[in-house]
């Protein structure tokens, strides 16, 4: 647990105005420091007409590919800060590392492509789509080579799915060492993906359904990331995607082709997909044996624990923020489940003693992020905010201590436990263990 | 009366034939009677070979080659030592608080996931080195070099004896110490009810932390990775 910052707040109004101005300058990532008395900021005597109302604006194509307002420059992906993470949590090499989505600044269920979390095992390649191909072979009647241009001509689907790294929220495994929702839980994002179902492509290749047990998916990146997927899952809802939120996949997300394995851990959604081999045996690749397996307390390990179980997290207010004053706040958060749709989210403001049902403030798609809200008054009293997701299987999101009991301390991947944020009397929001 | 003389007639006939052949040539080259959409190009196994690099536990797709401990040591000290350290005991740190680069042999107490302690199949080592290592120049090693490195690492991990020459014939025969250390995923492993009022939390006496749910031989989850029987 981190120690509260003893930085003093101020009740001085001129200081307050200064902080407001500087926070506007710094953009939405900045936080207002102020007293907790609810008060109206001393207003100027009469409204000013700002400079942008008295001068002509920028022409079309000022940016031929549009950018966020420059006042939003703090809303960016970030790496783990070694000073704010468990010992040895931050990888040594940036090409085998990850960056986190700024969850607290997101609205609705779609993660903008430029803010989608990153995770690579050997850097991301810059692939020329003219030279890229998808090979389908193995237990099929005919090996197929499909160009990117031709893949886009097959009948296509559009689906909204979350992706979550199985190591997401690892810093909360037993010790709550992270501080912000971005740094702790930011390895989850959600997008609308466009592509072609594997079942269609395998039918084209003439898959041998009597012998096929797995498909080995492999990337064209430096380490040629490879994973085995059970054929039943592959033929269910897995697809080859070429677009994300209306445009081509970003290079960080697998341009020009990636696999989408809905509801399953990020690493099996192979990026820069180049090859699908239908087999009767798993590959047992390094990234499905040495890594991405779950070592239990009895020294055995689970393999292919792919499903990301139901989870939710409050993104506002969240760790590192400071509530500027007493008054009304809309508690807001995300919930998702790899087993299907979110059916309800509950919120507690007293550390888990009493719960109330939250509003679902977005559409609900299976295996996608669902947004929830909950009206709340900050009275200046200490409060502990927790959210709890329930999915269509009836599964209720657990406490960390329950997962530790069930799985032992060696685990660490697939931490879907509840996040508690403590609101101090001074409005400061902290990550706490319940 | 004719608009064309004979020569011109044959010229246009030939041109027409060429146009017809040209327009159906892609279809002739790629028979589509079995593909609904006719967008995939049928290719041979040989054509795929340069990309077909996976080596599963059967060892069937291992390339021909061999390597010894001494050869592996020399390659290791040239290609691997910078990150993985002397004898794989490495863990080079790029910064005081950063995670050390992976060690390849057991030097710390349990739990650890090093090769000799955790990896279930020796073929995985060949597969991974072949596809992903060395980190900055992947796919640059020849099969003999990879066999030598695998031999070196298995010997440093006390899995095989120092005189073993590793080849495509014997690699898949090696039984790794942790071969039987993996079970299928049996989650969900917590079973909460959504209590709404006056609920206990883990801080309260009497809170039900649930039970240890680690293995269950009856369960055979569909995603599980299992070798064919």
Automatic annotation (TrEMBL), chain A:
It is an enzyme of class 1 (oxidoreductase). Residues 121-282 form the Oxidoreductase molybdopterin-binding domain. Gene3D superfamilies: 2.60.40.650, Oxidoreductase, molybdopterin-binding domain. Residues 307-409 form the Moybdenum cofactor oxidoreductase dimerisation domain. Coiled coil: none annotated. Its EC number is 1.8.2.1. Transmembrane segments: none annotated. It comes from the Bacteria. Keywords: Metal-binding, Molybdenum, Oxidoreductase. Its cofactor is Mo-molybdopterin. InterPro entries: Ig_E-set, MoCF_OxRdtse_dimer, Mopterin_OxRdtase_euk, OxRdtase_Mopterin-bd_dom, OxRdtase_Mopterin-bd_sf, Sulfite_DH_SoxC. The keyword DNA repair does not apply. One of its GO terms (molecular function) is sulfite dehydrogenase activity. NCBIfam families: sulfite_DH_soxC (TIGR04555). This is Sulfite dehydrogenase. It comes from Shewanella surugensis.
TrEMBL record, chain B:
Keywords: Heme, Iron, Metal-binding. It holds the Pfam family Cytochrome_CBB3. InterPro entries: Cyt_c-like_dom, Cyt_c-like_dom_sf, Cytochrome_c-type_DH. SUPFAM superfamilies: Cytochrome c. PROSITE patterns: CYTC. It comes from the Bacteria. Residues 67-157 form the Cytochrome c domain. PANTHER family: ALCOHOL DEHYDROGENASE CYTOCHROME C SUBUNIT, BLL4482 PROTEIN-RELATED. This is Cytochrome c. The lineage of its organism: Bacteria, Pseudomonadati, Pseudomonadota, Gammaproteobacteria, Alteromonadales.
